């Protein structure tokens, strides 16, 4: 099941008790599971067609009337084609519309460059008054949906195309995956699983490394993140995004020191076709690649 499908399924359940919840879709419902909502709550599902700008504006109008619309599309289409409508209709007005961007990041499988969103965090984080979330598991999704519905603000939830497994621990805005360690690989979304693989390989080399998973990116959970860094001697970023405007810049803008290298998609890269495993190996972002580079930088051979 695609990760965004878990968001749609959670909305199916929540909508049974909250009549304000609607889902709008940009003609891709069967690609990420929004058709689940259409089947269960057809009276609150709007197929907007391939018209992302109109879809976001429609959702803003619905929110102004007291509804809580959730807008689904591929992140590449939603964040970029409808950027001005998001800027004016949501960020400037504060209308509580939730944008669900599927197929974000660089692991787009066979879809190719036009369907990959490599800099969506940079684009969305440049807007005021917009909450940004990047869940990394199904449990995270349920947590995020409930957190979004507690507020009266616009939000963007970022999902990859690639299915994922669960992550240990209770969902939170940010948390260690497992125990606290001396070194931290900081990540979000799908790449938290990549970072966890790298950290496990580092521990096998007697390097005390673990993963801090960020579920909320904006507003940045500074107090909670500070508490996680107690005793940490170094932070590396593992990011399913281009470096510019990604997690490294986000942390630096909040005053945190980041170690080099930053593990992210190349700055001059516009996307590629291939399985997730192939792409990670091709661009030196596999768990083995990351662990090897960090071990070498710490003077520990693999």
UniProtKB/TrEMBL annotation:
Name this polypeptide is given: Transketolase
PANTHER family linked: PYRUVATE DEHYDROGENASE E1 COMPONENT (PTHR43825:SF3)
SUPFAM superfamilies (UniProt xref): Thiamin diphosphate-binding fold (THDP-binding) (SSF52518), TK C-terminal domain-like (SSF52922)
Membrane-spanning segments: none
Signal peptide region: none
Any one Pfam family match given in the protein's UniProt record, by short name: Transket_pyr
Domain (Transketolase-like pyrimidine-binding): residue spans on this chain: 1-166
InterPro entries: PDH/Transketolase, THDP-binding, Transketo_C/PFOR_II, Transketolase-like_Pyr-bd, Transketolase_C
């Amino acid at each position: 099941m695609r990760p965004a499908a878990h968001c749609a399924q959670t909305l199916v359940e929540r909508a049974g008790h909250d009549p304000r919840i609607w889902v709008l879709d940009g003609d891709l419902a069967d690609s990420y599971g929004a058709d689940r909502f259409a089947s269960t709550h057809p009276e609150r599902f709007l197929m907007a067609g391939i018209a992302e700008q109109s879809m976001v504006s429609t959702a803003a109008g619905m929110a102004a009337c007291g509804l809580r619309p959730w807008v689904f599309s591929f992140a590449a289409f939603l964040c970029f084609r409808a950027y001005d409508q998001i800027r004016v209709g949501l960020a400037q007005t504060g209308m509580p519309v939730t944008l669900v961007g599927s197929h974000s990041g660089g692991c787009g499988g066979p879809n190719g460059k036009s369907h990959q969103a490599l800099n969506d965090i940079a684009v969305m984080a440049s807007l005021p008054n917009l909450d940004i979330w990047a869940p990394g598991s199904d449990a995270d999704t349920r947590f995020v949906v409930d957190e979004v519905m507690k507020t009266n603000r616009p939000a963007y939830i970022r999902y990859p195309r690639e299915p994922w497994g669960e992550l240990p621990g209770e969902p939170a805005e940010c948390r260690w995956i497992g125990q606290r360690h001396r070194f931290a690989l900081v990540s979000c979304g799908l790449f938290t699983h990549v970072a966890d693989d790298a950290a496990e390989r580092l521990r096998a080399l007697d390097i005390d490394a673990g993963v801090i998973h960020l579920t909320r990116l904006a507003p940045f959970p500074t107090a909670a993140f500070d508490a996680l860094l107690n005793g940490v001697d170094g932070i590396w970023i593992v990011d399913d995004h281009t470096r510019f405007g990604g997690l490294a810049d986000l942390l630096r803008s909040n005053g945190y020191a980041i170690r080099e290298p930053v593990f992210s998609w190349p700055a001059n890269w516009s996307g590629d076709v291939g399985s997730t495993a192939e792409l990670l190996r091709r661009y030196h972002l596999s768990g083995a690649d990351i662990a090897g580079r960090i071990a070498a930088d710490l003077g520990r051979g693999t």
